[in-house]
Design brief:
The chain is α/β, with parallel strands linked by helices. The chain has 8 helices and 13 strands. Helices cover 39% and strands 23% of the residues. The protein is globular, with a radius of gyration of 19 Å.
Length: 218
């Protein structure tokens, strides 16, 4: 059973989230302030965290840097785009604005709790397989011919599945192998990659996150 920590000082919203998640088969943990959240996380390791920003004591922005290796979804009434961008670049895996649709929230939670299967030879996400030794990609056992740049982009995105990866991070990660990829050409390379993958089974594995970068969706 997956465990989700709800960090929100609004008792009504927290109770609603707890009931909703438990109905979906998740175990839940609760914290009502930033300080209490850090105490909770020092003794528990949930599979995912729903983090409000406007908390008493330490706020959500101050709590976020203390959380390592656990997906954090920001759930906040703050709608400032710059704030969203900064949080996504500094560790949050997603940002949901209050008031939210419960169906969408549950869908996003399921996405972030579905990791890419990985071993020394392959990265796998559903029917998509990236062979790390052969440098080949297939969907539904159909080989997909990618350029060196497209392969490098797909690899870094799959290695960080469900996380928003900034354009600069992608460029820095692939620069040694693909010097032809620049800030101005990255968007076109990703567009070509998405099209090639989508043509096989109609699935769009890569999401463009406006103003930030891209995310591989499992």
């Amino acid at each position: 059973m997956k465990t989700i920590a709800i960090i929100d000082d609004d008792i009504h919203i927290g109770n609603m989230l707890e009931e909703l998640l438990q109905q979906e088969g998740y175990a839940t943990l609760r914290a009502y302030s930033g300080t209490e959240a850090l105490f909770l996380l020092s003794r528990n390791e949930p599979d995912l965290i729903l983090l409000d920003l406007m908390l008493p004591g330490l706020n959500g922005e101050e709590v976020l840097p203390h959380i390592q290796d656990i997906p954090v979804m920001i759930v906040s009434a703050k709608m400032d785009m710059t704030n969203k961008v900064n949080l996504l670049l500094n560790g949050a895996c997603d940002y949901v604005t209050k008031p939210f649709d419960t169906g969408e929230l549950l869908a996003r939670i399921k996405i972030h709790l579905r990791p890419v299967r990985t071993n020394k030879k392959q990265l796998c996400a559903g029917d998509l397989v990236l062979d790390l030794n052969m440098h080949e990609v297939s969907v539904n056992h159909v080989s997909v011919k990618l350029t060196k740049t497209e392969y490098a982009i797909l690899k870094i995105l799959m290695q960080n599945a469900n996380q928003v990866i900034s354009k600069n991070t992608i460029l820095d990660s692939i620069s040694m192998d693909t010097p032809d990829c620049t800030d101005s050409s990255l968007k076109q390379h990703v567009s070509n990659l998405r099209k090639k993958l989508r043509e096989v089974n109609g699935t769009d594995y890569i999401e463009a996150v406006w103003g930030i970068g891209f995310r591989f969706i499992v």
